[in-house]
């Protein structure tokens, strides 16, 4: 199993997920990683939706801010566990975001995914992706 790729240090964009479909990366929008405390705090004041495996905070960026693409941040508190457990939870959130956000996310929005103790690292991956998709539908007001 190969480790997930890290975001490009200069642009902050995450590489597209590998797929068996040859043209899968062409339609996917790249995700930009939130890095500054200010960005995380602005998302914390916005809408949030909890699921069994994570908390998702989402906000639409204003007209005066950088408007292009989807931005996403990941965080886990020390309640999740030691550094190894927190990093594992964030890796799983990162992969779920790569799989779900290009289709379910909206351009011009910031998302912060917050890991939960035990649940994020232990939940089966297909359910983790389902939780993220459900949270995005609720945040965007889409009826399912």
From TrEMBL:
PROSITE patterns for the chain: RIBONUCLEASE_P
GO molecular function: ribonuclease P activity
Region listing for Disordered, in residue ranges: 1-25
Basic and acidic residues bias: start-end ranges: 1-11
Pfam family, one: Ribonuclease_P
EC number: 3.1.26.5
Family to which this protein belongs: Belongs to the RnpA family.
Subunit details: Consists of a catalytic RNA component (M1 or rnpB) and a protein subunit.
HAMAP family: RNase_P
Function: RNaseP catalyzes the removal of the 5'-leader sequence from pre-tRNA to produce the mature 5'-terminus. It can also cleave other RNA substrates such as 4.5S RNA. The protein component plays an auxiliary but essential role in vivo by binding to the 5'-leader sequence and broadening the substrate specificity of the ribozyme.
Name by which UniProt lists this protein: Ribonuclease P protein component
The species this protein was found in: Roseovarius aquimarinus
Gene transcribed to yield this protein: rnpA
